[in-house]
Request: fold
Amino acid sequence: MKCYACKKDGLKLFLSLGHQPPSDAFLKPEDMNKPEETYPLDCYFCPSCTLIQLGYAVDPEILFREYVYNTGSNNALRVNFHELVEKILKKYQPQKGALAVDVGSNDGTLLENYIPHGLNILGIDPSSATSIAIEKGIPTLVEFFNKEVAEKAVTRYGKAQIITATNVFAHVVEIDSFMDGVVSLLADDGVFITESAYVVNMVNNMSYDQIYHEHLRYYGVKSLETLFERYSMEIIDIEEIQSHGGSIRVYAAKRGAHVKEASIAEFLTHEQEEGFWKFEKYEQFAKKIVDTKFKLLDIIFELKRNGQRIIGIGAPAKGNTLLNYCKIDSDLIDYLTEKSKLKIGLFSPGMHIPVVDEELLLKEQPEAALILSWNLAEELIPKLRKLGYKGKFILPNPVPIVLEK
Reply:
């Protein structure tokens, strides 16, 4: 096994979350008695470039073709994408008619923000969510992005001034073909912008539930620099954003095309000083994960012993990592509440907890609610209180706690 970023051997295992089903592989009622595929969920550290990565890659056809997630259902992401496009337009000032491409475009939510500004747009995404974008009239290639697809896009649409890959750059198995595609599609003075979970925040916030099969890599700035250097590209700017519990937005370009900002050196210095270039940091992280698991289970068992009902708020992919690792099943959690019609009526992968409309929470008023999208707790709790939920909230991370009325 070689590192995705530097291609060197010698990767070191520091965490195993067991064999788990893909986190978005929700089951239909008629599939509940069928065998369920599971895959190892193990994390490795690269001593050469510091990249954190999974040891096993699930076939992308299994993970992404039938995809029960659409970006437009996430209000925080809609706001994030609007702000991203505004920053791009202000900072790089692409001319009207310039091409903006979104890789992993899903339902087209990001690309819609370019339309009032006169840019040409193109989405590239293999998933079933693209049907929503196509219905909205957004040009979309329903394919996995790689060098061949990039060359097809250049032939049809020309070179791209802007390429975005938000919460998708860590998903790609064939990273070399993906990067060859970026180089082929990007104009010489163009900018490639990625948003990915930041390994520093993942460790500091105990966000181990961000680890699932779609996310093959967990980037720091040093590992990203190593990856881009192999393609004669360089990072030109970095900023931290709130998406997905703490991410980094990285602006990259062909070498020498743009001035490099001072923020890059600041990120690198911080990572090194805080120990994120050393294996010991991740060994400590793994030990804390075990401790967090048992603390959460203690809370849940105590509530159940007292005869209290517990449900789950939301059915995000990250929630399924937590539920499967902690072995929290339908004996402990009655159901998961959701707004997404794509998930309501299904069962969670692995633990087989039913997913229901969130209105049931307000109707039944269970005594406790485990917030699986805990990184959005500050937004969710006031909203649910306003709607009329009166019970306790359980936050599983970074330290499991119960919030009373």
Summary: The mean pLDDT is 94. The domain at 307-403 is CATH 3.40.50.720 (Rossmann fold). The longest helix spans residues 279-305.
